[in-house]
Amino acid sequence: MKMRKFVALAAVASMLIGSLAGCSGATNESSAGGAVGDDAIQNLIAATEGTVSLTVWASEEDQAYTQGLIDEFIALYPDVTFDIQLGSESESTCKDTVLTDIEAAADVFTFADDQIQALVDAGALQPVSAYYTYDVANENAAGAVEAATVNGQLYAYPMTADNGYFMFYDSSIYTEEDVQSLDSMIAAAQASGTKIGMDLSSGWYLYSFFAGAGLTLGLNEDGTTNTCTWNDAGGTDVAQAIIDYFGTGVLVNMTDDEQATAIANGEISACVNGTWRAETAQAAWGDNYAAAKLPTYNLNGTETQMSSFSGCKLVGVNAYSDQIGWSMLLAEYLTNEAAQIGRFNARGLGPSNIAAANSPEVQANPAIAALAAQADYATPQRVGGNYWAPSQTLGEILASGNPDGTDLQTLLDTAVEGIEAPVV
Amino acid sequence: MASNKEVHAKTFGKAFVNFFKGIANYFTDFGKAISKGDLAVKLSTVLMGAGYFARKKFVVGFLTMLLEAAFIFMCIFYAAPNLAKFGTLGDTVRSTQFDPLTMQNTVIEGDNSFLILLNSVIALFAIFVFILLWIHNIKRAYELQQDSEKGVHIATFAEDFKSLVNGRFNITLLALPTLGVILMNVIPILILIAIAFTNYDQMHMPPSALFTWVGLANFKNILSLSSGSSAFGYAFFKVLGWTLVWAFFSTFTCFLGGIVLAKLITYRKVKFPKIWRTLFVVTIAVPQFVTLLLVRYFFGDTGIVNSFCTGIGLTEFLKSIGLVANHLSYIPFLTNPGWAKFMIIMINIWVGVPYQMLIATGVLLNIPESQIESAKLDGANAWQIFWHITMPYVLFVEGPTLITDFVRNINNFNVIYLLTQDTFVTTNQTLANANAKEVDLLVTWLFRLTNDYYNYKMASVIGIIVFVICAVFSLIAFSKFLSGGREESYQ
Amino acid sequence: MENAISKHDNYEQKELKLRSKKKSETATTIIINALIAIFALIWIIPIVWLLVTAFSKYRGIDTAHFFPAQGWTLDNFKIVLFEPDSVVQYIAWFKNTFIIALFSCIISTAFVLMVSYTFSCMRFKGRHAMMKFSIILNMFPGVLSMIAVYFVMKQLGLTNSHVGMVIVYSAGSGLGYLICKGFMDTIPTSIREAARLDGASEVEIFFKIILPLSKPIIVYTVISSFLAPWADFVFAKLMLNSGISTDWTVAIGLYNMLGKDLKSHYFSIFCAGGLLISIPISVLFILMQKYYVAGVTGGASKG
Question: Which pTM value belongs to this model?
Answer without folding.
Answer: 0.84
